[in-house]
Every structure is written in C-alpha cells, then in structure tokens.
Design a protein that fits this description.
Pfam family, one: SBP_bac_1
CATH architecture of the largest domain: 3-Layer(aba) Sandwich
Protein name: ABC transporter substrate-binding protein
CATH class of the largest domain: Alpha Beta
InterPro entries: Bact_solute-bd_prot1, SBP
Number of helices: 18
Number of strands: 12
Length: 423
C-alpha cells in the first residue's frame, strides 16, 4: 500500500508543477482557510504544503487566513453563501457539519476529482465514511464532499512526574483510572484537566458511555441504523459517572466556563496530571512541555476518533482547479511524512516514525483502527448538536441538572432531527 500510495502521490505532484498560471492573464490567488495552530503537526505540514504549492505554481500566491475552530464552526454556512468564501478550507466532518453544508448545496461535489486524482485509493475503508454524504447529508455513502488529510483519536495524556511523585500507576482500565484519580484527590490534587465551554467535557461524557457500548450502538447513534435510547445502560453510565467524577473532585466545578485552549495550557503547565483529549495536541505537547516527562495511553474500550478534518471546496470557490492542486500536495508522501514526524497521524502511511512519541501516537491509532474501536465524535449526528451537548454537560459540572434531565435534554433535538434525514 505504501509504495502504491507513494507512486500515486509523486505522480500527482509532478503533474501539477508549473500549471498554476495556465488560466487567466493576471496573477492568481488561492484563498486558504484552516484552523491548525503553527505548533501542531498539521499546522507544520500545511505550512510546508503552501511552500510546495507556490513553488510548483509560478505566479500564484496563497492567501492563508488562520481561523479558530469555533469561528469556522459558527460562521461557515453564512460565509460560504457569500462572495467571501475561500477556495479551499478545512472543515469538521460528520452529519451536523460537512453533511449539513453538502445538503444545503454549499460544498462542491468532488467525486470525479477524487477518482481522477486517485484520492479514493489513499482514503480507504472507514476513513471514507466522513468524506461521503447522501442527499440527506448523512455520512457513509453517496458523493464525495471532502478529502480527509490525517487521522485522530482521543486518549489519556498523563504527567509522568506527578504519577511518580504520588505513586500512581499508568491506568489501563477504567477501574485503574478511577483508582489513580482517587489517589490524586486524596493528596489534594484535582486530577483531570477539563473544559466545559467547548468540546472536551462532552467528549469525556461520551468516552464514559463508550465503555458500555459496541459497534452497533455507535452506528445507531451516528448513522441512524436503528433506535437510540438515551436512557440505556451506556448513556446512563456516561452521564451518571461524569456527574460522579465532578462530585468526587476528579473534575473541577470551575471548569464549566473554561475553553479547550485553557485545558491544554493547564496540562502543558503541569497544573493537572491527566488530560483526556485528542491526538491533535501531540505536536504542541512535544514542543511546549519542558518541565516534566509525559506520556499517553489508550482509553479503555472504544474511543472517539476517525479520519481527521477535511479539505472541502466551497461551491463559491473561484479557483477550484488550484484548490484541487493544493489538496493533492497535502496528500503527497513528503507532506504526509512531515505530518507524521511532527506527531500527527497521516492517512498516507509510509513506514514508521523514528521519534518515540510520534511512533506512539501512530501505533495507538493503528491499534484502535485494527480493533474497530473508533467511534466518531458525540456532536456529529445533528446540526447544532455541539451546542446542545456543551450546554447539557455544563449542567452536570455545575450540578444544575440531574443526569436523567441532561439525557432528556440531549435526546429531544436528536429525535427531532431524524425527520430531517428521512428516518
């Protein structure tokens, strides 16, 4: 697979050289949006891709605009329906985001381009699930509306120095994780970094539910393959255990108003010994943690994860040909290798990284993928569901609603959305 992928992508990049100014008489500009920080593995890889793109497209400049994840999530439908739409942008995957924009006619159907450029040979198996959407915007079948460019998953990061100081063992099971947090609390340490104002808290609740779930449960919830009961054993365990973690002091009540960036910085600064979050933090942790040793371990059972965010081409893109050329470069072996060596998880695999931490993050994803343990993300099923989950889980942190009330709250918009997707 690696040799075939290398041959395909090398041919693509060579074929692109010098073709940037072939249309129109004046200089051209590729308007690019993405929300990967410069210290992240993806940010470093896409910066190199921009350099390669400009070198192979004389007369073409890339106008890159860095956007925040929340900014893009909230404004994309409005911006993409205006003259300010970028030519190519990174966007979140799933029914509630890319699926919704595809259904609304705001994204370009790139199926023919995917076939022509061989991207369907690079993005295979379950990784295609989040790239393809049917007429109702449901992922997993139909036309291609994006190209995933990396992979990601949620795991448990831990501060090795604090674990050693308090005699805590690296947890491999949920019971061991609970016992570890009990030790920290007993020593007066709040163990778990968290952010209730954005995605981290809802992902933790979903992770807890996943410890009681299987593939059928995930497919019913994410792909509408059957009835979803929000008071079943898995959802009930997730909500009640999360509330219990707050009550026991594993999670600070003050975290209800914090953001993901606050959570990540607090772990980097050594304020919390544990952070449950995504592989997208790896590059930043490697670069910015200077004062202690750290590691990661897989979450027990299934875990949030999938092919990563996607390159999409807005319907209003004025330079679709350049957008496709840029995507091809990001999928080329040199750029995917750059992503891998910076601590990311490439979709185009070509050997194993030499750095121990980069190898760890890639090996862990391979284990999750091969064992069918990737369960997507909790906010994907319905438009606006991200905000629903944020609000609901915040109430578990503050104690302003019971687990049963929270589960009722997240059930209502999910059930209402089923009619919108023909279910």
């Amino acid at each position: 697979m690696a040799k075939r992928a290398l041959a395909i992508t090398t041919t693509l990049v060579l074929a692109l050289a010098g073709c940037g100014s072939s249309q129109g008489d004046g200089p051209r500009t590729l308007k690019l949006w993405h929300y990967e920080g410069p210290d992240s593995a993806m940010g470093a890889a896409w910066a190199d891709a921009v350099k390669q793109f400009e070198a192979s497209h004389p007369g073409v400049k890339v106008a890159f605009e860095e956007k925040g994840f929340e900014q893009v999530r909230k404004t994309a439908p409005m911006v993409l329906n205006s003259k300010d739409a970028p030519d190519v942008m990174e966007y979140d995957k799933g029914n509630a985001t890319s699926g919704l924009l595809a259904k609304q006619g705001l994204l370009t159907d790139i199926t023919d381009e995917v076939t022509k450029r061989g991207w369907d040979k690079l993005v295979t198996g379950e990784s295609q699930t989040t790239a393809r959407y049917d007429d109702n915007g449901v992922m997993g079948s139909g036309k291609w509306y994006g190209v995933p460019n990396y992979a990601e998953y949620v795991s448990v990061y831990y501060n090795k120095d604090q674990f050693a100081k308090y005699g805590v063992q690296v947890p491999k099971t949920l019971d061991e994780l609970t016992a570890a947090m009990d030790k920290f609390v007993a020593a007066g340490v709040t163990p778990l970094a968290n952010a209730g104002q954005e995605y981290p808290a809802q992902q933790i609740m979903y992770q807890l539910a996943l410890t009681k779930a299987d593939r059928d449960w995930v497919n019913r919830y994410q792909r509408y393959t059957g009835k979803v009961d929000f008071h079943d054993a898995a959802w009930t365990f997730g909500a009640t255990t999360f509330a219990d973690w707050v009550r026991k002091g594993y999670i600070s009540k003050d975290s209800a108003g914090t953001k993901a960036e606050d959570m990540g910085l607090s772990f980097i600064q050594g304020k919390y010994p544990i952070m449950v979050s995504g592989s997208w933090w790896y590059g930043r942790l490697v670069k910015n943690i200077k004062d202690f040793q750290w590691g990661s371990t897989l979450w027990p059972g299934m875990a949030s994860g999938s092919a990563g965010n996607m390159w999409v081409v807005p319907k209003g893109s004025k330079n679709k040909d350049l957008a496709y050329d840029f995507i091809a470069i990001t999928m080329s072996q040199p750029i995917q290798d750059k992503l891998r060596d910076a601590g990311g998880v490439p979709l185009v695999q070509n050997g194993s990284p030499t750095d121990a931490k980069a190898k760890e993050v890639n090996d862990n994803f391979a284990a999750l993928s091969s064992q069918d343990r990737l369960a997507f993300y909790p906010d994907w099923p319905a438009p606006g569901y991200y905000d629903v989950l944020v609000s609901a889980v915040q109430k578990l942190i503050t104690g302003s609603a019971t687990p049963d009330q929270v589960l009722d709250e997240i059930a209502k918009p999910y059930q209402e959305n089923l009619a919108n997707v023909g279910k």
